[in-house]
Amino acid sequence: MVGTRGVPARYGGFETAVEEVGRRLAEAGHEVVVYCRGERHPEPEYLGMKLVHLPAVEKKVAETLSHTGFSVMHAIGRKIVRKGPDVALVFNAANAPLLPFLRAMRIPVATHVDGLEWKRTKWSGTGQRYYRTAESLAVRWSDALIADARGIQDYYVERFDADSVLIAYGAPILQSINTGKLAEAGFRPGEYHLVVARFEPENHVHVAVEGYRKSTATKPLVVVGSAPYADEYTAKLRELAGDDPRINFLGGVWDQELLDALYAGALTYVHGHSVGGTNPSLLRAMGAGASVLAFDVNFNREVLGEEAGRFFPDAPVLAREIEAAEAEPGAAADRGAAARKRASERYVWDDVATAYERLCADLAARRLTRRTVRRKR
């Protein structure tokens, strides 16, 4: 499993998927090797997975690709000197230029294409062109594509006439709130609105802050998040918040127990993500029973359905939704319960791991190849 920051999962959706799927595959008797960058785990194994720590060029435009390059060379070395991997799971279409090296060693490859990364505003025109080119290379050189949402599947059909395997993420299901953790942070259940997001424009944290400021809400807004290379956008958010005493910026919260408590205790969770397919933060909020107010895009409607959330296209509509939740907290709680039920039925990590196991078996047996990615015209 290559192309992510690795495990233990401390960063994002890819890392969580690697941890949840990888440990289940290891429990099923498979040998799982995870390539990691960043903080080194003190042991060579974690939850049954074997860890390989390698460096990266610490620059925004090169970090992911450079680390994956080192990882691919390491995997090839294992293949040369002894039995290497039967299958490679490569996360992020941005790593597609490295796929021919794996293919040259006859290692079947599935690429998890992620969301529509080229739409992210942090990438310049050159970056956007690179990501769009990388998508086409992933289609050309992968034996299978993995999409985590039907909207992503549809995009690859429409743009590349390419098939993909739909495997979403799982949702952790929380049954109770750690009120002690909330109290330590200064909050009470049902007495605040919550945003959890990396600070990037396409996650619409600015719309969340602006919408909240336009509202007559009396309960505070708690904003959890940060991002590397995002100083300008962070400054914009603080400018939008102004001196409003109702808005609390907590920065990044790395204490998972506290983060879960924040999700579970929120009156509403405001989800502004718009380009990333099935978003793990949304699934975590649903699993915690949060009442979700989501930015109105097809990915979020696919995950929530029509009963498990409310949708906003802009700040004025969000302001009305926040006010409505405060006026009718019982209705908000009912939506949260519906969201938890939907997550527990549709987004189950055991099912996700089984789908990955089946995919790997098909790749190893050569039932999936580049020819199966291209649709028959």
Automatic annotation (TrEMBL):
The keyword Cell membrane does not apply. InterPro entries: DUF1972, Glyco_trans_1. Residues 192-342 form the Glycosyl transferase family domain. It comes from the Bacteria. Signal peptide: none annotated. Keywords: Transferase. Residues 1-171 form the DUF1972 domain. One of its GO terms (molecular function) is glycosyltransferase activity. This is DUF1972 domain-containing protein. It comes from Actinomadura barringtoniae.
